[in-house]
Specification:
This protein is an alpha/beta fold. The protein binds adenosine-5'-triphosphate. GO terms for molecular function: 3'-5' DNA helicase activity; ATP binding; DNA binding; hydrolase activity.
Length: about 700
Amino acid sequence: MPSRSGIDSEFSIEQGYLTGLYARLDAMRDQAATRLATARAAGTDRDATAFWQAELVRLESVEDRLCFGRLDMRDGRRVYIGRLGLFPDEDDEPLLVDWRAPVAEPFYTATMAAPHGVRRRRRITTRGRVVLALDDELLDPDTAVTGGDRLVGEGALVAALTADRTGRMRDIVTTLQAEQDRIVRDAYPGVLVVQGGPGTGKTAVALHRLAYLLYTRPYLRTRGVLIVGPTQVFLDYIGQVLPGLGEHAVVTATIADLCPGMVVSRTDSPETAEVKGRADMAGRIAEAVRSAVRTAGEPVEVVFEQQTIRLDPRDCLRAADTAARAGLPHNQARLVFQQRMVDLLAQRLTDRLESVAFTETGEAIDGGSADGRLGAADLRALAAAGVVIHPGQDDDVDGPRRMLDETDRARLRNALLADTEVCHALDELWPRLTARQVVAGLFATPAATGWSAADIPLLDEAAAVIGDPVDAARDGATYGHVVVDEAQELSAMAWRMVLRRCPTRSMTIVGDLAQTSDPAGASSWDRMLRPHVDDHWRLAQLTINYRTPAEIMAVTTDLFIAHHPGLRLPRSVRAGGEPPWRRRTTLADLPHVIAEIVAAHSDGQLAIITPPPHLARLRAALSLATPLDATDPVVVLVPGEAKGLEFDSVVIVDPAAILTAPLGHNDLYVAMTRATRRLGIVHPGPPPAELSRVRES
Ligand SMILES: Nc1ncnc2c1ncn2[C@@H]1O[C@H](COP(=O)(O)OP(=O)(O)OP(=O)(O)O)[C@@H](O)[C@H]1O
């Protein structure tokens, strides 16, 4: 055992070092504040103002757990690891190494068998600016046997996993595990899919990977990075993680948010949503847009300044063909079509004009040659009649003459383009479309009835095909790297929407095929991704469940095996929690029983997960305000809302009703794996067979 004085001296060494680090951080903050004030006062350099403002925010956000580790290397070097790099001076050795730097990697990956030059790994637990605990691991077996070093403090991982939940995710930078760190630092440039069971840290890993990529690929800061999550509640839940890692320039969005200006106000039946999510909807949208062009068949008559101009259907078809071959979206190709048509109309008008000349008294003389141009003989006749004709600059003096030069013809084309009747006639042939029109036309649904979640990817697809954003005022941006969380829920059409925002296909996709609850979602990553990225995607797996204790995972086994024979249940990292329980009641008594459970609950955050039909009744019974706030001590929510979240205690209501949804078994699995400590089930009537392992209380 290390002596008390030995431990004390280790603490005082680390406390002294930590105090020095904070002093350096404070100095950097002061310097950033001064530079910001100077830039603001000068008022000229907006880039400098923005830079120092962002720098100040970055330095403020690393206050908590600034330094959390130390590596003692076999060559005698000592490396302190923390949230950012700190240097005494530009060229000196760092006081603190950013956790993302290569030299920090062994902090996460070194083992006794592969120590990567590390002799001792020390985890430093702090609160505020005070050292609370030191936790040492010796990676040098010889020294360990002689007892020359010592282990100090509580295991940081266990402490992190057993801490009370707050409704906000925390970063795991101090306790990232080796299999997670490998994914965080993976240099794969294409689509990296992280598959893993509940609680394996997929979300945490994706967020840390994003922080790592922003550090190692600084160009991403200007290209922008995007996180797509299932709900706003989920995005709020993870919202503190990246700022805590010093990264603020990240956009978060649900699928609906990616389509600016759209509000989801309608719910489709699962069957309809599944149909709308299918990949072949893209073909239907393209066809609907193509068929809006009506150029075949009848000759086209266009009236301009009381003259009727008749165009041959073949001319219109040729114009449409040229426009279609320009490779532009519909609304932009329409401009090419209009241009071609106006050229044709102007030509017809010019031909007609040049085949008719007028005397000074306004009388028409038919002086046209066979090709509609004025020949030398015509000109002589016209001159004799007193008509003055200005030959165009490009006219050959010996050849047929033109009345209109290029400028005149351009003016004529402009006059045609500005003419309401002409525009109307051309619009009939190649109408300008809106995304709303196209999608409403597909399902014969009036746009006024509002849009469902499954409509959003269709609107976005239509917007891409026609070339105008759904909301004329706001266009969707593209990003240098995109993270998609709960990615198993995305339909084929939603994938198309996300991929349009990531032209480089640099993506981190995290999800679990056993948690899919959207009927249009994924049952195979390959089937979902191959049509878009061919084989430029790679699978990484996480296998250890850090959230859910073994006792709870054990009761999900029957449910899991019955529906996912090909997948493996993740292994729980900890056991010893309370055994799950179930309680039978009646439908009428349900609100009363839940209120009783809530009243008796005192320890940590509690979630009541219920199928939608009971939601309003239970919220009313508990007098809960409506918008869901995941930080409340008691929350009532449906399985879809619980995705990605976690709570100290979970009570599942009426599991049989949850199982009636199309992928209800996955919903129930999601609900059961949200608990970090306790799971209870309240069921009106007999329990579903899949839950027979749960003891009745
Ligand atoms: N290395 C770690 N150290 C500390 N906590 C961890 C670690 N890995 C995961 N956790 C914790 O485990 C919990 C589950 O992590 P996370 O939500 O990322 O898992 P997930 O795989 O996305 O889960 P699900 O698919 O169920 O939504 C979180 O509280 C997270 O902080």
